[in-house]
TrEMBL record:
Origin: domain of life: Bacteria
InterPro entries given in the database record: Homeodomain-like_sf (IPR009057), HTH-type_TetR-like_transc_reg (IPR050109), HTH_TetR (IPR001647)
Bilayer-crossing regions: none
UniProt GO MF annotations: DNA-binding transcription factor activity; transcription cis-regulatory region binding
PROSITE patterns linked to this entry: HTH_TETR_2 (PS50977)
Pfam family of the protein (one): TetR_N
Residue ranges flagged as DNA-binding region: 38-57
Residue ranges constituting the HTH tetR-type domain according to the UniProt record: 15-75
PANTHER family: HTH-TYPE TRANSCRIPTIONAL REGULATOR BETI, HTH-TYPE TRANSCRIPTIONAL REGULATOR RUTR
Keywords recorded for this protein, A-Z: DNA-binding, Transcription, Transcription regulation
Name under which the protein is recorded: TetR family transcriptional regulator
Length: 200
């Protein structure tokens, strides 16, 4: 979690203020784009003074880091939610569907938040997503063999970077359902091959 400077929002009112700032920040980014993503616009949209905003965040980059962290956390929460609410889905499809739901907003918003994650946390964040993906794949015990670290690396990083590519290339206008199906086929075919090699 990004450290929020100057004042730690422990009290309910402070947390509500931070939430309002972050919600306003998302709206400004999504409506006006990154070029007009300024602390003054964010403060105005949130209904707080610029001084209040700076009590919690040093600058707009700190706000973006917190937004991107929430985006990343939301992905792990979606995986858990889908595992519980849609047990008919395979674990692989659960992971793919949760990852594809992504963050709300325009392609530019998604790209800015994705870039922020990779620029500020890079490999560490991919490792966190890797753990979440592998936990999801093992939760239901669908596979009777142990995925080695190399195979696990290939599975999770393939998903992470292919989905990042779809954010970076919106002009391709890929059909979401067909993309989900192709990614599921790719992962399940690879896992089936691993199972065959393991004699499972």
């Amino acid at each position: 979690m990004v450290e929020i400077n100057r004042r730690n929002p422990k009290q309910a009112r402070a947390r509500a203020t931070v939430d309002a700032i972050l919600e306003a920040a998302f709206q400004v980014l999504d409506t006006n784009g990154y070029a007009k993503f300024t602390t003054s616009r964010i403060a105005k949209r949130a209904g707080v003074s610029i001084g209040t905003l700076y009590q919690y965040f040093d600058d707009r980059d700190a706000i973006l880091q917190e937004l991107s962290q929430r985006y990343s956390d939301a992905l792990r929460e979606r995986i858990t939610k889908l595992l519980l609410e849609e047990p008919e889905l395979s674990s692989v499809r659960t992971v793919i569907r949760a990852a594809m739901q992504g963050v709300e907003g325009s392609p530019e918003t998604q790209l800015v938040l994705s870039n922020t994650i990779f620029q500020t946390r890079g490999g560490a964040e991919v490792s966190r997503q890797h753990s979440a993906f592998m936990d999801a794949l093992s939760t239901r015990g669908e596979y009777e063999f142990v995925l080695g670290k190399e195979a696990s690396f290939i599975l999770t990083h393939t998903v992470v970077y292919l989905l990042r590519a779809t954010i970076m290339e919106p002009e391709l206008e890929l059909d979401p359902q067909r993309l989900e199906d192709e990614l599921v086929h790719l992962m399940e075919s690879y896992i089936a091959n691993l199972a065959e090699r393991a004699g499972a």
